[in-house]
């Protein structure tokens, strides 16, 4: 049941957005059209409201150990201002979620939310105090992950504070070839456009201190901006050009909804939690999901032993892309066959690529059919449609 709204919900209503339920949030699916918004991100710049993503803050003497035990990547490698992509796995190595982990300035206390960044427009390495992190679960998973972190902390006696700060933050994604120009024009902080990929800093946008990272989920250059929820309208207006009043006559960035975000990430072959993997309906490990690069077996995380065994023994199915060679649109749940009605896998995502104007899909195929160029078929409404296997991304980025 949808019962959570973005702090920008009324702003989006005034702009004429259409909405959809996503992970228990009512979020804009499109403002003008998915194809127009998709093209803006590929060719220029778009801005997304992604406030449905969770924010969980972790701080204290054992914060690094806690993060390292519950994510598959190496949290000890992060210094203040660094971030990394990681999976969250159970004892069997099955993915519960994927996430981005940010190392905040030292001394930020979990539970203080975005207000902790106020007045911190300074070098990140000047911080004092205990390490602090913010990680971003997918929509609707913030409570579950807060409980998981808290329970593990208590079971192991670690000294760390864990707080679900999702309602304190708003999160925007500014994406596209012109994203750096858009962000540069919105903040006086010169260092922001100099950030490398997966670096972050504190910077003022529309007069509001926020956490700005060179991250995103579209395949284009871009930034994700986290700011206090009660200041979201001004920050959105700094990019969309409407300052929260619905006047988008001359936007700096095209407002974009989750429809375009889905087509953009599908073209890149990026995973969608709850669809491309799900612990109940689509249980997959990072190796099966083709993100083994986030698994650091030299760290002691939950699920490590199971994943080490799987790496040694190999996997039966692998996440790949398919491109249809006939008319038809691939969709979630469609069977993939060898062309002679023998099932060899299934799709978890599918769309008509706006960039390529071709039908593309993502899913899991048996290893013997997972090599690029392999001919397969996708069953569309009972008919086998010829297709070929592609290793994402589908586009050159």
Strand content: 25-35%
Helix and strand sequence: EHEEHEEHEEEHEEHEEEHEHHEEEEEE
For the sheet with most strands, the description reads: 6 strands, mixed
- Helix tally equals 8
Calculate the mean pLDDT score and round it. 93
DSSP strand tally: 20
- The CA-CA distance between the termini, in Å, is 37 Å
Instruction: Please tell me what the overall shape is.
Output: globular
Q: What's the alpha carbon Rg, rounded to whole Å?
A: 21 Å
* Assembly type: single chain
> Any low-confidence stretches, pLDDT <50, length ≥5?
243-251
Strand order within the widest beta sheet:
11-12-13-10-4-14
Which range best describes the helical content: under 10%, 10-25%, 25-40%, 40-55%, 55-70% or over 70%?
10-25%
Structural class: alpha+beta
């Amino acid at each position: 049941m949808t019962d959570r709204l973005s702090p920008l919900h009324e702003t989006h209503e005034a702009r004429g957005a259409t909405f959809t339920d996503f992970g228990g949030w009512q979020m804009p699916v499109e403002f003008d059209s998915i194809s127009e918004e998709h093209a803006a991100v590929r060719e220029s710049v778009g801005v997304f409201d992604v406030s449905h993503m969770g924010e969980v803050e972790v701080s204290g003497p054992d914060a690094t150990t806690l993060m390292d035990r519950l994510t598959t990547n190496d949290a000890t490698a992060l210094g203040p201002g660094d971030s990394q992509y990681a999976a969250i796995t159970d004892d069997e190595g099955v993915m519960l979620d994927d996430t981005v982990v940010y190392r905040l300035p030292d001394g930020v206390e979990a539970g203080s939310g975005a207000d902790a960044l106020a007045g911190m427009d300074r070098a990140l390495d000047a911080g004092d105090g205990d390490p602090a992190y913010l990680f971003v679960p997918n929509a609707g998973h913030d409570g579950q992950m807060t409980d998981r972190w808290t329970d593990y902390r208590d079971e192991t006696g670690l000294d760390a504070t864990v707080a679900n700060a999702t309602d304190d933050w708003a999160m925007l994604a500014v994406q596209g070839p012109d994203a750096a120009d858009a962000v540069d024009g919105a903040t006086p902080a010169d260092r922001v456009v100099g950030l490398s990929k997966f670096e972050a800093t504190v910077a003022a946008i529309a007069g509001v201190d926020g956490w700005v990272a060179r991250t995103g989920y579209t395949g284009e250059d871009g930034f994700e901006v986290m700011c206090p929820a009660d200041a979201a309208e001004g920050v959105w207006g700094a990019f969309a050009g409407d300052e929260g009043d619905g006047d988008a006559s001359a936007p700096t960035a095209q407002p974009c909804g989750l429809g375009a975000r889905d087509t953009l990430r599908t073209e890149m072959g990026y995973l969608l939690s709850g669809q491309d993997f799900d612990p109940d309906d689509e249980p997959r490990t990072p190796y099966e999901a083709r993100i083994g690069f986030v698994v650091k077996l030299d760290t002691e995380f939950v699920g490590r032993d199971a994943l080490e065994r799987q790496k040694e023994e190999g996997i039966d199915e692998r996440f790949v892309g398919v491109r249809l060679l006939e008319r038809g649109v691939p969709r979630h749940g469609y069977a993939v066959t060898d062309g002679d009605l023998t099932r060899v896998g299934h799709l978890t995502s599918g769309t008509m690529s706006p960039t390529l104007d071709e039908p593309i899909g993502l899913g899991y195929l048996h290893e013997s059919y997972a090599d690029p160029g392999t001919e397969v078929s996708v069953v569309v409404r009972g008919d086998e449609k010829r297709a070929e296997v592609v290793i994402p991304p589908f586009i050159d980025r």
